[in-house]
Amino acid sequence: MSDKPIYVSKPFLPPLEEFTPYLEQIWSNKTLTNGGPFHQQLEKALCKYLGVDHIALFNNGTIALITALQAMKIKGEVITTPYSFVATAHSLLWNGIEPVFVDIDPNTLNLDPSKIEAAITSKTTAIMPVHCYGRPCDVEAIQEIADRHNLKVIYDAAHAFGVKCHCGSVLNHGDLSVLSFHATKVFNTFEGGAVVCSDVEIKNLINQLKNFGFVDEVTVDIAGINGKMSEVNAAFGLAQLNHIDDALEARKKVDALYRFQLKNVNGIKCLEDAGEKVTNYSYFPILVDETYSLSRDQLYQKLKNNNIYSRRYFYPLISDFPMYKTLRSSSFSNLPVAHRLSKQVLCLPMYPDLDSDDVIRITGLIKNNL
Ligand SMILES: *Cc1c(COP(=O)(O)O)cnc(C)c1O
To answer: Which tens digits make up the pLDDT trace of 284-299?
Structure first.
């Protein structure tokens, strides 16, 4: 174990000397939070960079999800995917909403639109899909179903920073999209998140909700929460935004090298190559099937023994955690594809400055020729 450890992700940091002038400004103007100048600048800069109308910054993606549901007044049941990070469903439980899990598409690992309608009941009010690994959902099919049944669509777009589909930013689909800027994500503000929307009234409501419900100094007319992003976090986002294109380009190269090294390895499948589509290469998942020489967990352990820390995202399924597993929609027979793939998936280390030599070492271990 002489090799240095390689973790599944590594936070993306701009040069420190580019961040210190922001700190000096905060020290001199003494505005630490509550929609200060860097908060306003970052909202503007992100709207422009991402190609969206409105962004409300948050202290993290989970509070942003919870607040997005509040803003749309979602109640009853919401259709969602079991194949995601647990915060997706937790945001529903925190609003007293019942998640109804629907199976995923085996190729995209996103909610399978052909299975959504069968799960709709008189209590269904919305669909909450996830653009898993930054690969766009079938946004048209989902919208068509939502329109037909008068449902809202709230995307958990935590993985989808900068992702585009045929008609521009994927974040422009649905009623709202929610981003996470957690340290492990493509674009980070240490902790942070945002709600993206196209309706200025919804944006104003979200601003009110994230600030305890204050309308003005003496008026509070809804029970809001504290979801505000601080000036330090917003400043960090501004410093990082100057480097995001380089980071995405570097991720693309890592993705291409993994694909080249892993092609024709028996029992190892990469997800479909994004090709010319604008994606963010946020993760590098592989599927380990029964024709590979080791089980998925044995491969995970072998990499770990070599100081390489891959992650089983997403295993267990959300629907298998104790607060969800008694739901009718959590049954194995309702979610066969999600169950099968969550036992096969392994996310390999993926970050902008992952060395080619390290990718070759990792794939060498997978190919068993080291
Ligand atoms: C990271 C993540 C979240 C939560 O975001 P935080 O900023 O960590 O609160 C929600 N959903 C998905 C799919 C995520 O990957």
So the answer is: 999 999 999 999 999 9
Model pTM?
A: 0.97
| 6-10+244-367 matches 16-241 in fold | no
Q: Which atom of ligand 1 is nearest to the CA of 132?
A: 13
What's the whole-number mean pLDDT along residues 4-25? 96
Q: 329: CA distance to ligand 1 center in Å?
A: 22
What spatial distance separates the first Cα and last Cα of the chain, rounded to whole Å?
14
Is 16-241 a domain of CATH 3.40.640.10?
yes
CATH topology of domain 6-10+244-367: Aspartate Aminotransferase, domain 1 (3.90.1150)
| pLDDT band with cut points at 50, 70 and 90 for residue 278 | confident
Backbone φ and ψ for 109, nearest 5 degrees, come out as: 65, 15
Task: Give the list of residues 6+ apart from residue 232 with CB closer than 8 angstroms, or none.
Answer: 23, 26, 32, 190
**C-alpha 59 to ligand 1 mean position (Å):** 12
As for ligand 1, residues whose beta carbon falls within 6 Å of it are 60-62, 84-85, 87-88, 130, 156, 158-159, 180, 182, 193
369: confidence class by pLDDT, cuts 50, 70, 90:
low
Q: Where are the domains of the chain?
A: 6-10+244-367, 16-241
Mutate to test the pocket of ligand 1, among 88, 190, 283, 347 (most ligand atoms within 8 A of CB): 88
- At 197, give phi and psi (nearest 5°): -150, 165
Q: Is the pLDDT of residue 202 over 80?
A: yes
